[in-house]
Amino acid sequence: MSTALGALVARPRREREKWSLPWDRIILAGAGLLIGYLVLAPLLMLLFASVKSTASRLPMEAGPLTLQNYVTVFLSAETYQLLGTTVLYAAGALIVALTLASTFAWLLERTNVPLRSLLSVLILAPMAVPPMMMAITFILLASPTIGLVNVWLRALLHMSSNSGPMSVYSVPGMIVVSGITLVPSVYLMLAGTFRNMDPALEDSGAMSGASPRLTFQRITLPLMRPAILAAAAYFLVVMIEGFDIPALLGTTAGIRVFSTQVYLATHPGNGLPDYGLASGYGMVLFGLAAVLILAYQRLLRSGERFAVVGNRDYRARMVDLGRWRLPALALCLLYVLWALVLPLVVLLWASLLPFYTPPSAEALHRLTLSNYVSLARYPSLDLVIRNTVVVGLLASLLTMLLASISSWMAVRGQFRLRSVPDALTFVTLGVPSIVLGLALIFLYISVPIPIYGTVWILVVAYVTRFLSYGSRIMVAAQVQLRHELEEAGMVSGATWAQVFRRIVLALLLPAFVNGLIWVSVHTIRELSIALMLFSQGNAVLSVVIWNAWQERAQIGLAAAFGVILIVFSALLTLVGRWYATREASRTLAGAPGDPRPGVPETLPA
Questions:
Q1: DSSP per-residue string spanning 405-474
Q2: How far is CA 147 from CA 163, 167, 348, in A?
Q3: pLDDT confidence of residue 390
Q4: What is the rounded distance in angstroms from the CA atom of residue 389 to the CA atom of residue 52?
């Protein structure tokens, strides 16, 4: 290696840079321009639509520019009611998720709670259940009339009413369901912080005579505050843009948030869609998300002041829970029961009934596989499955390839504007899915690219939507890769494309595969974008489940599709994680005589 590096230094600069051929520059420039187009074009089109009078026509049609849409939005009392409901829903769900996730992270990473390894898997398992399916299962559990829990409570309390006593069709219901759904993702973001914190400060507090409770309040919690606040800012964006759960639980009770209002403005029950008003609401939603993303970035930067992990070895001190070990275990198992076991059981039960009724001994004789038979005979099922698979594979592959190139430019690039593509990918975090779908409708109806109504517009939408996630994963992996390996390839006469393919991507394969699986799973479960861009030719599984659920007579069919979707997501995740783990182990170990250093596996947040 040193000989190769010496030769590199000895060569004239123009010879060292001859590996950067025109085609290499074209690839880098093309990737940067493509990222810029994917991010900026929809936003500019949305901004243009918001200043057009489009109550009964599309924004690209002839018409004057006007601020009437913003006047209508900001002077309407309904807007501030939407704002209050959206903030209440998002903040409430975040409080539920943060409380549970931080508690589980502390219990599983810093205490001697029983069954820690098993619980770590079970806490993350609900990620396999899409938010839409979680909402459907909680409807079957807590609907005022047919909900299993309400049926049991009415029998237990000897109530004569056929409704209640609980209702999932309410803001508290939306908060609880969304909070439970969000726990695994928040746990992933916080667990590492609890695990990696140096216990020396806690030990100092204990040696000073502080009780465990006082040590936790005065030392542990303040050290965790930056990570917790950063997670809060990030996932508040996720909740504000959420569509699935508010659409299924809120609209039934007449409760609307900004995301559902944008959808209803473009898909009215009667009359013509108001694209201008929808764009105005979309810009407000984008503004809310953008402010929170800026807060998130600032919290990440300020969090360095609280860094307590140094370069010395240490072992986290495990807290002995004593008599609280079993209650802590019961709390974890109670979450698993409500977030995983009951939803899967009630969903499977619904899929085995021709007409849904709550579980009972009398209903056992009506169990049948007819819904799965109907699923196999579903019109255009082959097209739906093909669209779902093609969109998932293409979107995830293109997302990770673009993210890999943009992250390389940000970390390794030696030219101006090298960090612009990666910075643009971060902008997409602040673009809610429902808003992105609306912007793409305007964009691809007006430009001469015939992809509207095809699966290709879904691929474009998902690449744009998840580019930021892929970029975050690959940047974290790129900074762990020593640059001498690439320089050795350059000295050997390889082009940039060869170095990138044979060295960079080969060493970062575990991180790349992790991102590939994460994006593909989220692509096949995404509803809001697929619903906004839906046509007969690009139907995917999530939209089919939505349409089946809207026809109440097809609850069993929707449940059967949901079971298939969850099983497919779980298998895809397990196979991908197995492959990524195997590649990470091979990379860390290295082949005999292989000079490559190990590149740690990078997990998506």
A1: HHHHHHHH--STTTTHHHHHHHHGGGS-HHHHHHHHHHHHHHSS-TTTTSHHHHHHHHHHHHHHHHHHHH
A2: 9, 9, 15
A3: 92
A4: 37
Look over the chain and give the mean of its residue pLDDT values, rounded to a whole number: 79
Split into its structural domains, the chain has a count of 1
Q: Say whether 168 sits in a helix, a strand or coil.
A: coil
Whole-angstrom distance, CA of residue 54 vs CA of residue 64: 10
Helices (H) and strands (E) in the chain, counts: 29, 0
Task: Judge whether 180 and 125 are in contact, CB under 8 Å.
Answer: no
- Asked if the bond preceding 165 is cis, omega within 30° of 0, the reply is yes
Contacts of 249 (CB under 8 A, 6+ apart): 135, 138, 139, 168, 169, 170, 173, 174, 177, 255
- CA-based torsion, 470, 529, 88, 286: positive or negative: positive
Q: How far apart are CA 268 and CA 277, in angstroms?
A: 12
Task: Note the pLDDT of residue 497.
Answer: 72
Placement of tokens 């275990």 in the chain: 329
Structure tokens at 281: 């609401």
Q: Which of 288, 204, 305, 274 is nearest to 56 (CA)?
A: 274
More confident residue, 552 or 589: 552
State the pLDDT at residue 587: 58
DSSP string, 546-557: HHHHHSGGGHHH
**How far is 581 from 360, CA to CA, in rounded Å?**
43
CA distances from 376 to 18, 189, 380, 472, 546 (A): 57, 39, 10, 39, 18
Kind and range of the H or E run holding 270: none
d(CA 251, CA 267): 13
Q: Which amino acid is at 507?
A: L
- Least Cα distance to 135 among 540, 553, 538, 528 occurs for 528
Would residue 10 count as lying in a domain? no
3-state secondary structure of 52: strand
How far is residue 168 CA from its own chain's centroid?
A: 24
Say what the pTM is: 0.80
Tell me the residue length of the chain: 605
Q: Which one, of 578, 599, 589, lies nearest residue 507 by Cα?
A: 599
How many whole angstroms separate alpha carbon 401 and alpha carbon 132? 29
DSSP 302-357: HGGGG----SS---PPPB--GGGHHHHHHHHHHHHIIIIIHHHHHHHHHHT-SS--
Let me know: does 301 contact 256? Beta carbons within 8 Å: no
First to last CA, the chain: 35
pLDDT in tens, 463-484: 999 988 888 778 777 766 666 6
603 pLDDT higher than 80: no
CATH number at residue 159: 1.10.3720.10
| DSSP string over 75-88 | H-HHHHHHHHHHHH
Q: In DSSP terms, which residues pair with 65 in a beta bridge?
A: 52
Residue 560 has pLDDT above 70, yes or no: yes
Residue 175 within any structural domain of the chain = yes
Q: 91-104 pLDDT, tens per residue? A: 999 999 999 998 89
> Domain limits at 104?
54-368
CB 524 within 8 A of CB 541: yes
Domain for residue 259, yes or no?
Answer: yes
Query: CA-to-CA distance for 605 and 190, rounded, in angstroms?
Result: 9
Domain-located, residue 421 = no
- Nearest one of 322, 284, 591, 540 to 434, comparing CA atoms: 284
Task: Find tokens 């393919």 and name the residue.
Answer: 501
Residues 470, 402: contact at Cβ < 8 Å?
Answer: yes
